[in-house]
Sequence to fold (634 residues):
Amino acid sequence: MYIGFSEAEKFLRNCEDAVIITHRNPDGDCIGAGFGLQDILSQMGIRSKVVCSDEFPQRYAFMTDGSNQYGDFEPKTVIAVDIADTKLMGDYEQIYGDKVQLCIDHHISNKNYAEKTLLQGEATAACEIIYALAKFMGVEITKHCATCLYTGIATDSGCFKYDCTTPRAHEIAAEMMRNYDINFARINRYMFDVKSRGRLMLESRLSELMEENLDGRLVIVAVTQAMMSEMGVSMEELEGFAPMTIQLENTEVGILMRERKDGVFKCSFRSAYDVNVSEICQTIGGGGHAKAAGCTLEGSLEDAKKILVEAVRKALT
Amino acid sequence: MYIGFSEAEKFLRNCEDAVIITHRNPDGDCIGAGFGLQDILSQMGIRSKVVCSDEFPQRYAFMTDGSNQYGDFEPKTVIAVDIADTKLMGDYEQIYGDKVQLCIDHHISNKNYAEKTLLQGEATAACEIIYALAKFMGVEITKHCATCLYTGIATDSGCFKYDCTTPRAHEIAAEMMRNYDINFARINRYMFDVKSRGRLMLESRLSELMEENLDGRLVIVAVTQAMMSEMGVSMEELEGFAPMTIQLENTEVGILMRERKDGVFKCSFRSAYDVNVSEICQTIGGGGHAKAAGCTLEGSLEDAKKILVEAVRKALT
Fold:
């Protein structure tokens, strides 16, 4: 059932001992949303724990360190943030997949799996919704909370760059800078600009890795486990690499394929102009946003590429 | 003489036939400021022409096309935007260098060469000042004007990413999105994400071109005319390349050296953390902002590098 702020407030004020689930391969928005929400619940005297099927990458330590201060406990409430589909919960799917009471999300492809879903498809990020909800509820936001929520908004919008950026996202950023003195420049440096030597090495190979298809309208870049080992770069270090697939002016759709350790290809789509990649991904079991979406594909690299090219070809005709 | 908004308004309302000077190697802010100001003057029935010593790069056509609609005329008023020092006017220095009546700028290194200088060192961009001035004056802003001013604010802040981003910059962006429906995503794609094949080729060589000095605290990347020819990339296509010199976490100062056709090296400094590069540049004839500054050096590449390393070494001790 889709709900609004009033019901979300009623639910949150009356919950206790919550587990907040973030999605696998966690990014700035789900981590920011998870720990931001934890802070908000703390303000209301409610304890929670933020979990993830994968380890939280080191680069997000400024949000995760010192958080989850309640340790472990048996949860009474199950909340999911920034998760469109239970399969994105990884190992937590079998534990909580059919028990989620509240989902806060901004993906238009959300599967409505939770009892109550607070969905705002036009929001820049889950963090934008959570900030607005905190304001609606009149709950005090700490500097740490503001830091988390800013991070989610900034990362999901490519630093206020992409089409999904809302005027509200800018206004929230201004409020955070004025009222909470967040170190936004430091956050942004680590979220967008600092790269490991392994990542720089990979980027130096971008030109040769770009495979143009459909008269250059589609670019695919595939990074295998072997390549990651060779260059000493991990899956999470490739966060933010997908937009690099659409740097040529004529490219309309870019896809970054990353091979997971289990051999499955995690495919990240980016749309440069008007193609809706969430729709394309939904035809092959995935989803996301109009301009940024994803899916996973099993099988060989070549077979996976064929599926991708065909799915995009259909959308471009 | 430094002035405020009241005097700037009085000056602008009473000027006529203005030449608006932008700096050589024009960037998004000076072009946006120049053409944004032209629109504002037009609203007041005042004609103007925006000039530059260099050609306006094609990527800024969305601002320049259809502008300068008054053609050529003998100017009665001389205005400079985003120019800290008359030598940055290129060929226009000898014509107007000592005749500038109003300068609107945000560089703390401004040489106070104009009769009246509207300087706000804390503003994200000259465009932020001009937007605020237009609001102060109660002048109507057109969509084209908003597009120009948004571009300047976005480009100078690395898309609301860098330390120079103000809360006001975010608020202005929100207002522009709400009131003028600017195509910000399209602007940002062209300002930040679209790259030519020549530029991508250069980027693929970044790792090998990065010269680490002072225990990695300083990184220098030099691009010569020969390299530009070899890769088919022009000076202006290298706009935005300077931040790539500080991608390694430990790098505190990055310098991009670009050889101009006249053999002079245009050096762009970026500060990753707390080093004030405007101060460093001022010791060698340049200037700019605390986190982004520049200077020019003549002589051989090796001699120029020695000067740069020495200047930075002094600042780091």
